[in-house]
Amino acid sequence: xxxxxxxxxxRYLALPPDVPVRVKDLAIQLTASEPxxxxxxxxxxxxxxxxxxxxxxxxxxxxxxxxxxxxxELGKGHCDYYASAMVVLSRAAGIPARLAIGYASxxxxxxxxxxxxxxADAHSWAEVYSPGIGWILFAPPAARRALxxxxxxxxxxxxxxxxxxxxxxxxxxxxxxWGWLLPLAALALSG
Length: 191
Description:
Elements: H1 6-12, H2 21-31, H3 37-48, H4 66-74, H5 79-92, E1 97-103, E2 107-109, E3 114-116, E4 122-130, E5 134-138, H6 149-155, H7 176-190
Antiparallel strand pairs: 1-4, 2-3, 4-5
């Protein structure tokens, strides 16, 4: 459905005013023939899976939109690039989306009966909102299978109420989203 609560529309459809037109145009091109928001999100995810996954990327230009750079010039990247592109393309297509950063489940150690989670398990992904269901995980990088369909039911956040989250609202200005992602990407690359 598309009956999004006001708090979802206000917070999770927002885009910086300087998102390049060709990024917005790509979002519309990818989703125009899809009947539902979920189908549109799947179309974006499928498109992003055509980009090669690599941790070996140059520093992005400081004067260029990161998503635009990834989609139209670099053409490859790591999970931060994919997740950022998924969120921006989704929002440009009218689908509420958010960026999540955390860790994949790691490796299970039979001796200690625990999961061992290391820096190599750091990951970012996109989540899109569906009324009555909540946040649905999308992990576009084809090389990262840890957070995909088999775990989506575990990772989706069910909606108990139609009220906004208890966390303070964050308004994304033109450089705020990228101002957070670039330092995170730099930390990931330096580690």
